[in-house]
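Changelog note: in this version the structure field was regenerated for every chain. One regenerated record is shown below for reference.
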Amino acid sequence: MKAKDIMHPEDAKAIQTIQNIKGIDKFIRMYMNMGYESVYRGENMANMIQATKETFPEIYGAFQEVVNIVGIREPKLYIYNDPVINAFTYGETDTFIALSSGMIEHLDIEELKGAMAHECGHILCKHTLYMTILETIKYAGTFFKFINYSLLSPIFLAMQYWSRKSELSADRCGAAVVGEECYQRILAKLASGMKHTSKFTRELIEQGKSYVAFKRASLWNRVQQESRSMFYSHPQLCVRALELDRWKDSYAYRELINTIKLDK
């Protein structure tokens, strides 16, 4: 699998804009190597359990399968204590993926593959490198008070926009590995918090269509909704479900699915 196979057009456009900033990639990598990446590495070792064939054999076996399909160097896999269904990835030289206990408890093994493939998609598309910019702005503008946050707001909002589009690329990776129908179950579980969603898996897609129609109904509706979502790092779940439903009918999706099947 290649990044271009799954990358959403808006994600690709935003990354290209960032890459046009001279020396930005080199600066971010240097920043991560100086300590930002090692902070997370130490935190993982201190407070999480690394998944291996000894600790979590079924999960780790599924993880290796996903990594081989996506075609990336195997990251470390950690499991942490949190009832919220969540996962994240970080790192450039020592990449890792972390899964919450809530995610493992709510998702079956096939759905878990989809969630892990989502995070592998971020790594494939090199999102972790650019996520550092976003995190740096957050810390510099709010935690350290290094720069007045209002001065960073335009950059922050632009990066939040990119972050939302990057999630659509990662969703495509997850759907390519386990199939669009399985991945829709994951989104339904994220939205509902329920362990069993088979009866309303497609409902999120229909809500997505209704939501788009609602936004288009008036300029005021659009302004209201955009003003709320502009601060989000992830798109609304119904939007993600609808985007995947559209992508599944594309030639690119069918070609990718067929290639994965042939490689197995």
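Spot check on this record: The mean pLDDT is 83. The longest strand covers residues 76-80.
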